[in-house]
TrEMBL record:
CDD domains: metallo-hydrolase-like_MBL-fold (cd16282). It comes from Pleionea mediterranea. GO terms for biological process: antibiotic catabolic process. The keyword Cytoplasm does not apply. GO terms for molecular function: hydrolase activity. Residues 152-179 form a coiled coil. The keyword RNA-binding does not apply. InterPro entries: Metallo-B-lactamas, NDM-1-like, RibonucZ/Hydroxyglut_hydro. SUPFAM superfamilies: Metallo-hydrolase/oxidoreductase. Residues 69-285 form the Metallo-beta-lactamase domain. Belongs to the metallo-beta-lactamase superfamily. Class-B beta-lactamase family. It comes from the Bacteria. Transmembrane segments: none annotated. This is Glyoxylase-like metal-dependent hydrolase (Beta-lactamase superfamily II).
């Protein structure tokens, strides 16, 4: 009987659950790419540290993990530290907290979550534990509800899927079909990860805002904006005008996830961001960008998918007809030329742009 490697075994479990439960595409990608590669490749370190000057430190996930967990930014001021995004890998979050403590004795006073996705919010409680619970959690006003209504189910699904994958792997280990002599070790690591996930209590924001919030300190201007629905119903960007740095959440990642997105207002949001005076971007996922080139790429992607969707709706095409008419590779060269992982992520995410564009235009009519 043909046996499947552990990686495919996990994918099989997760994909079948995806079909039956409608599990979020984001979670699917993070498991099929992230968990298995985390288990097999054990990349070290789990993030790279980039000092952007004037106390701005970006903790960037290395490329093999860039689509499955978020980057973190620490803004170290004279008297305080402000964190942007708490990621989902708790081991990485612990290492980031240790790295911050090694650089400054100032406390983390604020943790800003750019949006509700679990890979940007799950480690919030670690900052509470590490800094005596004194910090203020900050987010868009919608985050108060979405943490409960959306992040919690995403976390629950993550736990459920990992438990199911472990159970399957244990069954395989007990059978005579196992050809992976590291399977027991992988199961042990997965179990340790599962136990950590079960300890997570999601933290809601203490301080929320609608359009703009000024978190400036005496030594630095720090401005938070929400320009409308975009990647989610409540995306926060953090702009440091003196440093000309934008911390962008997932608004124009290398290949953003559009499954929870609002393409028309997303495009309007990006055009407003374009007017800000920044030179460097710390994205939610992937490497630091220079200038506005990546922003322009996503503006083009949204503009063209919306144009095509508008044409389809005007011509009374159904969603199915539209989806079968599109050239899914149109933006591949521009967005996914970096490596194989980019191509996989592109193939996984691109249809969501067309689908959401079609649905949003259809809804307007
Ligand atoms: Zn996101």
């Amino acid at each position: 009987m043909k046996t499947l490697p552990f990686k495919l075994l996990l994918q099989g479990v997760i994909k079948s659950r995806f079909i039956t439960t409608g599990l979020l595409a984001l979670t699917l990608l993070s498991h099929t790419i992230g968990f298995t590669e985390t288990q097999t490749a054990q990349p070290n370190p789990v993030f790279t540290t980039h000092d952007l000057g004037n106390g701005v430190i970006a903790f960037i996930k290395p490329d093999p993990l860039r689509f499955n967990d978020a980057n973190i930014t620490a803004i170290i001021n004279k008297e305080s530290v402000i964190i942007v995004d708490a990621n989902s890998d708790l081991n990485a979050a612990e290492q980031i907290i240790a790295a911050i403590k090694s650089r400054t004795d100032k406390p983390v006073t604020h943790v800003i979550n750019t949006h509700w996705h679990s890979d940007h919010t799950m480690a919030n409680q670690l900052y509470q534990q590490a800094f005596a619970g004194k910090q203020i959690f900050v987010g868009h006003q919608s985050l108060t509800n979405t943490i409960v209504d959306k992040t919690q189910p995403q976390l629950d699904e993550t736990i459920e899927n990992l438990a199911a994958a472990i159970k399957n792997a244990e069954d395989k280990l007990a059978s005579d079909n196992n050809d992976d002599n590291t399977l027991a070790e992988k199961i042990a690591r997965a179990k340790a990860k599962l136990e950590k996930l079960k300890t997570i209590n999601l933290v809601k924001p203490d301080k929320t805002f609608t359009n703009h919030l000024d978190l400036s300190t005496p030594d630095r201007r720090i401005e938070l904006f929400n320009f409308g629905t975009a990647h989610t119903e409540g995306d926060t960007i953090v702009f440091l005008p003196d440093d000309k740095i934008l911390i962008a959440g997932d608004l124009f990642d290398e290949i953003p996830f559009a499954g929870h997105g609002y393409p028309e207002s997303w495009l309007a949001t990006l055009n407003k961001i374009k007017a800000l005076d920044f030179e460097r971007v710390i994205p939610g996922h992937g490497s630091i960008h220079q200038g506005k080139q990546q922003l322009e790429k996503i503006i083009t992607l949204l503009t063209k998918t919306l144009q095509q969707a508008s044409h389809a709706v005007n011509n009374k095409m159904t969603l199915e007809q539209f989806m079968s008419s599109i050239n899914k590779d149109e933006f591949k060269q521009s967005l996914a030329s970096k490596d194989e992982l980019a191509k996989r992520a592109y193939n996984h995410f691109i249809e969501d742009f067309y689908k959401q564009a079609y649905l949003s235009i259809k809804k307007d009519q």
